[in-house]
Amino acid sequence: MNFVDYIYGLFGFKYSLGLSTRPATFLGDAAIWDKSEKMIEDALIKFGKPYKINKGDGAFYGPKIDIDLYDAFGRNHQCGTV
After folding, report:
1. Are 59 and 78 in contact, with CB atoms under 8 Å apart?
2. Domains of the chain by residue range
3. Contact status, residue 13 vs residue 70, Cβ threshold 8 Å
4. Are 62 and 23 in contact (CB under 8 A)?
5. CA dihedral for 82, 35, 21, 40, sign (positive or negative)
6. Residue 70 backbone zone (phi > 0: left; psi -120 to 50: alpha; other: beta)
7. What pLDDT was estimated at residue 11?
8. Neighbour tally for 39: CB within 10 Å
9. Is 14 helix (H, G, I), strand (E, B) or coil?
10. CA atoms of 79 and 69, how far apart (whole Å)
11. Which single residue of 3, 27, 45, 51 could bond 17 by disulfide (Cβ 3.0 to 4.6 Å)?
């Protein structure tokens, strides 16, 4: 996340973060998903930037951090995921 912050900041991009959690259809064990989501959320808290929860928007194989960039008109565009 520090690298993402550095690179986007280098180019002057404003961005927002989202934690995308387990979708209705997923692979694996729900307990492992819960643990993975908790670990990612802990990392986001430690990173210290605000984030939102995108309930059910994770990939079928795991949770993810979505990164939205904002253009000159303030419109958001999903640009990356971790």
Report:
1. no
2. 2-81
3. yes
4. no
5. negative
6. beta
7. 94
8. 11
9. strand
10. 6
11. 51
DSSP state of 78: E
pLDDT of res. 69: 96
Q: What is the pLDDT of residue 28?
A: 96
The fold of 2-81 is Dihydrodipicolinate Reductase; domain 2 (3.30.360)
What six digits make up the tokens of 79? 């640009």
Tokens (6 digits) for 15: 């961005």
Q: What is the mean pLDDT of each run of 10 residues along the chain (82 residues)?
A: 95 96 97 98 98 97 97 93 94
> In this structure, which amino acid lies at residue 80?
G
Q: What six digits make up the tokens of 73?
A: 């008109």
Largest CA distance in the chain: 42
CA atoms 65, 33, 55, 44: torsion sign: negative
